[in-house]
Amino acid sequence: MGDTIFGKIIRRDIPADIVYEDDNVLAFRDLNPQAPVHVLFIPKRAIATLDAATDADAELLGKLMLAAAAYARSEGLAEQGYRVVMNCNEHGGQTVFHVHLHLLAGRRMQWPPG
Ligand code: DGP
């Protein structure tokens, strides 16, 4: 896949407000927050979309999800609750083609989403 703005963040070519990092996952605050807490969790090994993921990506995607949950717990967000979202392709609203989980917290979320 081609490089994206998130690849540049992983390489520290452009700045980001990084809140969590391990061998597989990087998390940083969204530039355009949609909630008081809006953090993006991305795998360091890029996958363009959820649709492009294969069985070989199962462990990495699981780690992404668990990293978001652990972060929410560590920030005291879990008891009140939060939302995780992964947008896929045009109708899903995906704009950056490097798989990412949005962690949204700090306000009550609406359902259904717009
Ligand atoms: P999505 O629409 O699901 O592909 O979400 C992409 C998100 O990425 C969007 O909420 C805005 C955020 N974003 C785009 N460019 C940058 C950037 O350069 N830095 C940061 N921190 N966030 C970005």
Helix content: 10-25%
Q: Rg from C-alpha positions?
A: 14 Å
CATH superfamily: HIT-like
| Beta-strand fraction estimate | 15-25%
For the record, the CATH class is: Alpha Beta
Order of the strands making up the biggest sheet = 1-2-3-5-4
- In terms of per-residue confidence, which ranges show pLDDT below 50 for 5 or more consecutive residues? none
| Inertia-based shape | globular
Mean pLDDT, rounded to whole units? 97
Distance between the termini: 29 Å
Number of strands: 5
**Class based on secondary structure composition and strand pairing:** alpha+beta
CATH-assigned fold name: HIT family, subunit A
Which small compounds were modeled alongside the protein?
A: 2'-deoxyguanosine-5'-monophosphate
